[in-house]
């Protein structure tokens, strides 16, 4: 899962996955922020505005990872984004367990361990030269 390639202008497979994930999630956060509002911990203020801001940051991260000149800075931003949304993913899992929708519970729980590879890939993008 290396973010390095023979050409600094080329994106590795891992970086392409991150770019795709940030692009899709960024658009969804902006177009459908209400999807994400129930996932946010109560202590986070202005759920709608924060979700839209997260979408903008995710799109900026995707763009930054796509460009060799900004890939390192975007890797650091990506690391912060993954760490920053983790409480929402935990809240999602807690909320899912309170319900009886098994598929939703499985999806919510599956998201948690997926954060580690995203965090690792983001950090690798930052560390790559």
Shape: globular
Number of strands: 0
Cα-atom Rg, whole angstroms? 15 Å
Total helix count? Answer: 4
Coarse structural class: mainly alpha
Distance linking N and C termini: 15 Å
What does this structure look like?
The protein is mainly alpha-helical and 129 residues long. The chain has a domain at 13-85. It contains 4 helices and no strands. α2 runs antiparallel to α3 (71-98) and α3 (71-98) runs antiparallel to α4. It starts with 12 loop residues before the first helix and ends with a helix.
Summarize the structure.
The protein has 129 residues and is mainly α. The protein has helices spanning 13-31, 47-66, 71-98, 102-127. 72% of the residues lie in helices and 0% in strands.
Keywords:
72% helix, 0% strand, 129 residues, single chain, globular, mainly alpha, 4 helices, DoxX family protein
Helix and strand arrangement:
Blueprint: H1 13-31, H2 47-66, H3 71-98, H4 102-127
Helix pairs in contact: 1-2, 2-3, 3-4
């Amino acid at each position: 899962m290396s973010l390095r390639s023979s050409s600094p202008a080329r994106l590795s497979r891992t970086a392409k996955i991150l770019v795709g994930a940030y692009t899709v999630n960024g658009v969804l956060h902006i177009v459908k922020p209400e999807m994400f509002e129930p996932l946010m911990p109560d202590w986070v203020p202005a759920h709608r505005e924060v979700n839209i801001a997260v979408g903008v940051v995710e799109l900026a991260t995707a763009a930054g990872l796509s460009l060799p000149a900004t890939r390192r800075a975007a890797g650091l931003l990506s690391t912060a984004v993954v760490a920053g949304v983790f409480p929402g993913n935990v809240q999602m899992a807690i909320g899912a367990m309170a319900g009886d929708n098994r598929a939703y519970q499985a999806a919510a729980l599956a998201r948690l361990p997926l954060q580690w590879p995203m965090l690792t890939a983001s950090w690798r993008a930052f560390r790559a030269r």
